[in-house]
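Illustration: Zinc metallopeptidase.
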Amino acid sequence: MYGLGYGYGMYYDPTYILVILGIIITLAASAKVNSTFNKYSKVRSMSGMTGADAAKRILNSAGIYDVSIQHISGNLTDHYDPKHKVLRLSDSVYNSMSVAAIGVAAHECGHAIQDQKDYVPLRLRASLVPVANIGSMLAWPVIVLGLILGAFETLVPIGIILFSAAVLFQIVTLPVEFNASSRAIAVLDSTGILGGEEIRYTKKVLSAAALTYVASAAASILQLLRLVLLFGGRNRD
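Result:
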């Protein structure tokens, strides 16, 4: 018989420490980005530009005129939609004149610039989206079904492979996000939208935001490691 605590007994599974560690890392990163954004959202930019103003100027300076800027609800729900050529800015960014808001808007513009320049990691991430969505949705159901049906040597490995696809997406996301932030800092400086201490503040905001992607990838890798430790290369009658 199979159990979720396979190899370690039915009630005690030391690999849970990997799950707990992943949760702690994720929560810490989330708290960091929220506290950093809140701190610098109180610092008004000297230019007096809003996040939307800055985004429009950055896009125009990069020769991008086919990307629209939209206001969406939520807090830090900002994103660039390459399929529809839309840059969506949240409540805390669109109309805010803070250095934090301008930094986030510039980061999303960084993705639009990546799209314009056919940045390879961005294209790779886009190609992985369908596979990652399927993997994250089906991985655990397939693994659990394999355990219930006793199909350990067939369904469980398939579930682990599906989960690996979702982890790969998280890893590929890292260079895309780091590069977008680097582009954002460079363009904010070159266009004069921000300067001096404002650039330093914005770097702190974007560095904190990058930690959330690192934490998410780390948590996924730890979960994958747990699956491999529990089920990888093991057979059970």
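Reading the tokens back as a structure: Residues 16-44+107-231 form one domain.
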